[in-house]
Amino acid sequence: MRSKVRTLQIAFTYIGTVVGAGFATGQEILKFFTRYGHWAVLTIMLSTALFIWLGTKMMIIARRIEAESYEDFNRHLFGDQVGSTISLFTMVILIGVNSIMLAGAGAIFEENLGMHYQTGLLLTILGSYFLLKRGISGILQMNSIVVPLMLTLSLVIIFNTLHVPGAERFLFLQTDRSWFGAWMSPLLYTAFNLGMAQAVLVPMARHTNDERALVRGGILGGVGIGFMLLAAHFAMSSQMPQILQFEIPMGSIAFRLGTVVQTIYLLLIFLEIFSTFVADIYGVETQVKQRLSIAPALITPLLMLICYLLSQFGFSSLLSIFYPVFGALSLVWAVMLLRVPWSPPPRSGSSNTPGGTGTGITIISVKPATRITRK
């Protein structure tokens, strides 16, 4: 029973880390899948297979090399120097994304709850701080609440879409987009999201003793992500092309389903922002602890202060420059993850060194022989 609970926690955390606010609003799904019409179902299946394969492989390797942070994992893939540089760039992207998500949380409080923008920011930061004090267990527990709600909402949207005229259009939707763009899109989408998710999945895998739970959690998590992608695509396809004009496509669908569904949807958007914010701060924190000799108690408040300050200024314009670069880098990262061999399980008396050439070889430490003096 304990193993099954751990499997579900891993699966929910995997889903919750990938399914952020961009996913919830529907913009990501619209951009990467739905606008490619009849190709979308096949490309969603490809993306699901990659999430299962690469996500599980990343967690297994992270556990076997005993990677404490995503920097250790990147050093394993690319070597010390290149891996360290990639990790530093990833940290900048994560802090930027968190700043935008924090601004989004403030906007939700202001536009939908009638509260001040700064109040939303401060409440989000305060709640995140106390949850982070629980470490990785707090993140697991948070996602164990949020993700089942997300999956339930996906089911509600599917059942309601079944009665909409043109619900079957998701299979036959026409598009003027190229087939090359259609098949590159799931590769970029999966690589980008896994590149971001490694900040949480790597340390989570490191602190999971049961490797079978990681495998089962990776499979369930990948299937869950694919299911939610398909559910959102199914709902938005029935509203094409009118839905392209909305800033929050999924919101336009949820709002037509009544006040209760609308309230649940807004709550879920905030909870997804909150859970992703907490998870990313935790991932960056583990890397900062390895790079800088700062008191651990100060790292989280400092990171949150940086995100708070950046959320006051339009950081999204700067991030729009970094995003394409990080997307291309994530594709290279995913190819390296595909190529690198599975590391052997750690052996007793062994010391797995994360930094290296990415060969996954276990290095055994041997004590020097004791000198024997004859009388």
TrEMBL record:
Coiled coil: none annotated. This is Transporter. It comes from the Bacteria. The keyword Transmembrane applies. The keyword Transmembrane helix applies. Keywords: Membrane, Transmembrane, Transmembrane helix. The chain crosses the membrane at residues 36-54, 85-109, 115-132, 144-162, 182-202, 214-235, 255-282, 294-315, 321-340.
